[in-house]
Amino acid sequence: MSQHLSYIPDPIGLNLILAGLGGQGVIFITRLLARTAAAIGQPVIASEVHGMSQRGGSVISHLKIGGNSEAPLIRRGTADLLLALESDEALRNLLFLRRGGVAVVDAEQGPPPEVAEHLARLNIQVLSVPATRMAVGLGSAAVSNVVLVGFVAAHPFLAFSIEALKETLALVGHRGHELNQQALEAGYRAGRLRLSPALPWELTQSEKFRSREANLVTTHSLRQSTEESR
Amino acid sequence: MKHAVLLGNEAIALGLVEQGCRVVTSYPGTPSSEILAGVVRFKRQLGRRVYTEWSVNEKVAFEIALAASWSGLRAAVAMKQVGLNVAADPLFSAAYTGVKGGLVVIPADDPGPYSSQTEQDSRLLALSAKVPVLDPATPIEARAMVEQAFALSERYRLPVILRPTTRLCHALQSMAVDDVSAPDTAIPALRFCREPSRWAATPRHRYQLHVELNEKLRQVEADFARSALNYAIGDGGSHRVGVIASGVAFHMARQALLELGVSVPLLKIGTPYPLPRELVAPFVAGLQTVVVLEEPDACIEYQLPDRSRVRGRLDGTVPTAGELSPEAVCAVLTEVLAEAGYQVNPAPGDPELQALIESLPLPVRKPRLCPGCPHRSTFFALKREFGSDAIFPSDIGCYTLGINLRAVDTCVDMGASVSMADGFYQASRLVGDGRPIVATIGDSTFLHAGLGPLINAVHTGARFLLVILDNHTTAMTGFQPTAASDMAPDGDAAHGAARRVSMADLVRACGVAFVRVADPYDYQAFRSALNEASRHSQAPEGGVAVVIADHACVLYDPSLLRQNPAPVMVTGWCDGCGFCVEAFECPALTLRPDGSRVDIDDRVCVACGQCIHACYKGFIVPHTAEIVRVGP
After folding, report:
1. Percent of chain A with pLDDT over 70
2. pLDDT at residue number A35
3. Are residues B511 and B594 in the same domain?
4. Given Cys at both, which of B61, B182, B190, B533 links B25, Cβ 3.0 to 4.6 Å?
5. B529 phi and psi, to 5 degrees?
């Protein structure tokens, strides 16, 4: 098997799988990333699922950026990145990742230990991002998908400039525009902090403090709303 | 606008507008629904005069477009594949009579199936109707093929089918859109010209038209043999194995060959019917084995004159049901190539990881009705009123998900709920089965194909209850207008309100004596309407009784919820019996893993307040109520 360790299916393109539940905005972020890639001159082909599956079922998009294949689907074991808006949907779609691939998941915890161990052997990295918690802190859980996109934009695989993403977001996100921009920014900052801590980074000490404060507020309001519902 | 990312359906729509199509009609159905919506958008953007409408059904849509074509205009009609069954009658006839202005028929096939009752192949219907087919592989090609389709249609005066599949319809692709701002040309003063031997042909003339059609197809096939829509790729070396592919399967095959590390000749067929045999036969003859990859069924394969060297669906090499996934294509090619002695790259991915993931207890996520959906309230009331004994024929739409609430027993095709209820009544009378029969049908579906069956049921004296779920829109496919909704026929708000037909008046006009309009959100009133209706259908002089469950889709029109939110809470008395979770099945109601109680998920709940009726113990209460906590 060792000769396949470095097997990269499409040496110039990037294969992404985006997964989540109906209503979480998988299609929205697929279009956001696709349009951003097209705006910076990359050829794009993607596949969405519409119709019955949108009513709360599992939703998955395939997105290919910059490659030379016009096939809309990605073969299992050949995706570079998996973006999952929910942890069970992440597990369900892990098999799409190639060796050396990366999963970015909206979750508070990593995968179950036996899975994590196996993924490490395959050199697959799982990054758990508390995107929903961050989104609630910003004002609405609905923008957790955009938080996650912001986070991924900081990953060297994608390396989209945050400005390009912001421009597209301004075009596609007609509702809740302000909040979407904030979510993108927050995700991007978290991504930069997490993925390249050694890099010189513009986040000042006071900003760090403020973001910690925001987290505290979030936890508090979460607890409050849980109590109310009882 | 230099580059745009368009859905396959939008690319087709842009192609139609660019090519001067003047009339576009459709009936909504996944995966075709974005085509007409795209035409409405692009005609406005580009300032083109195009008549667009969501017709009452696909047969009507086809005939509206056909009349435009017979008047000399370019016209197109779009629908999902099963919609072409509904429009098959005019399609078969129009192949004989031919057309005048170019007529492009766009049935979207659904391999999988993802949102359909069958995996039928529209190319096979086209073969039977004798109508040429173009089969695009990408959104870019689909847009370009619209031009070819119109040219072909006008050269041979034949309707032409442009056949996309789900993965093309819902593929997003970046494409250049520089050339779309050309000003609209004047519409020539074309008009319908009488020619009874063609446009009103009797059987004697139909024979002549059939001879003419066969001759046209012979010429079309010869044209296709020289068409740039069919081409071979490969390294030019001598090979034992080759591949023929069309549609999305072409790029899947191309990608698979790259991944397998094998370079064998690949013949792309853009014109699957009539198959240019003159082109394909020499390709097959030069090889030991030829794999045919096409979706959703065999069509090219059936037309190959010599299948002795062919591997495909007919010999079982290619799976005969389901979508062609990259994994399936790679598996087929690996098998055939290995047999022929080729070395191929093994499949990537790790079997151990796969086994591990499969062993995890991941929840099965089936689609459910949305929180606040009025259909849920209707189904819940139906189950409470008629119990588990009743027969519940239903129909095609969001409300098919009523199956989760055990209030949907049958789902056949558009409008069948009414005729199946009629049939169940006639059958049950013969065998003395006295169970109540309660049919459900959506507003759009009822207008599409429910009226005929209702007239039949009234006339034959059938006794059942029909509940028309009127949510004011065609919800499942993205809120297209119906004839009874207040949107303009093409869904364009700029056109203002439409002439509405009254659902209740229609039902009365069919001869139904008992018609009630009731809001399913008003639980008690709705229950009593059901009860009254049921008594009418059983009374000596009774017959079909109709209740119109009138409440707008909460996604389509959330204003009522916003104006009158009814937040609820689960009291401390909740004992976790789980009845509400089972019987009401709202995504916002969750039973705790330890089974101790039910919680309301605030992120999902829309405060419709309907679940109050779902707890027969009364432990779901309005949030404002003062509750004395005595429970555990």
Report:
1. 75
2. 94
3. no
4. B61
5. -65, -40
Q: What's the CA gap between A160 and B122, in Å, rounded?
A: 41
CA B67 to chain centre: 24
Please write the tens of the pLDDT for every residue from A156-171. Answer: 888 788 899 999 998 8
CATH at residue B81: 3.40.50.970
Q: φ and ψ at B548, to 5 degrees?
A: -95, 110
- B255–A76 C-beta distance less than 8 A: no
Q: Based on the domain organization, do B200 and B77 belong to the same domain? A: yes
For residue B10, list chain A residues with Cβ-Cβ distance below 8 A: none
Those residues with Cβ within 8 angstroms of residue B424's Cβ, 6 or more apart along the chain or in another chain: B391, B393, B437, B464
**How far A212 CA sits from the closest chain B CA (Å)?**
23
B366: in domain: no
- Say what the pLDDT of residue B369 is: 93
What is the model's pLDDT at position B616?
95
**What rounded mean pLDDT belongs to chain B?**
94
The pLDDT tens digits of the residues spanning B83-118 come to: 999 999 999 999 999 999 999 999 999 999 989 999
Residue B459: HSE in the Cβ half-sphere, 13 Å Cα cutoff? 9
Same domain for B56 and B157, yes or no, is: yes
Residue B5 has its nearest CB partner, among A22, A44, A118, at A44
> What sections of A122-204 are H helices per DSSP?
131-138, 144-153, 162-172, 177-195
- Token pair for B541: 């002089």
Count of structural domains within chain B:
4
Whether B533 and B576 map to the same domain: the answer is: no
Say yes or no: B360 contacts chain A, CB-CB below 8 A: yes
Mean pLDDT of B531-542: 95
Instruction: Out of A47, A69, A230, name the one closest to residue B255 (CB).
Output: A69
A22:B254 CB<8 A: no
**Bond from prior residue into B274 cis (ω within 30 degrees of 0):** yes
| Residue recorded with tokens 């390396």 | A159
Tokens of B513: 């004596």
- The lowest-confidence range among A1-10, A96-105, B160-169, B218-227 is A1-10
Number of A:B CB contacts under 8 A?
Answer: 172
What is the predicted pLDDT for the residue at A11?
59
CATH 3.40.920.10 is right for the domain spanning A2-199? yes
Say yes or no: B476 and B335 in one domain.
no
Closest CA to B453 of B407, B512, B505, B500: B512
Residues of chain A found within 8 Å of residue B330, distances taken between Cβ atoms:
75
pLDDT band at A218 (very low <50, low <70, confident <90, very high): very low
Are B585 and B536 within one domain?
no
pLDDT in tens, A60-83: 999 999 988 899 999 999 999 999
CA dihedral B41, B43, B44, B49 (to 10 degrees): -150
Residues B174 and B32 in one domain: yes
Task: Kindly report the pTM of this predicted structure.
Answer: 0.92
- Cβ A164 vs Cβ A39: under 8 Å: yes
* Chain B residues closer than 8 Å to A63 by CB: 172
pLDDT band at B60 (very low <50, low <70, confident <90, very high): very high
**A114-132 pLDDT per residue, tens:** 999 999 999 999 999 999 9
Domain that holds residue B250: 231-339
Clarify whether residues B416 and B517 are in a common domain. yes
- Single-letter amino acid, residue B535: R
User: How confident is the model over A139-158, as a mean pLDDT?
Assistant: 92
